[in-house]
Amino acid sequence: MRLYTKTGDKGQTSLIGGRTDKDSLRVESYGTIDELNSFVGLALAELSCCPDCSDLQAELQNIQHELFDCGGDLAAVTEHKEYKLKDEAVSVLETCIDRYTAEAPPIEKFILPGGHKAAAELHIARTITRRAERIVVKLRKTEDINEAVLRYLNRLSDYFFAAARAVNARQGVKDIEYERSAAVFRDDK
Question: Where is the Cobalamin adenosyltransferase-like domain (predicted)?
Answer without folding.
Answer: 3-166
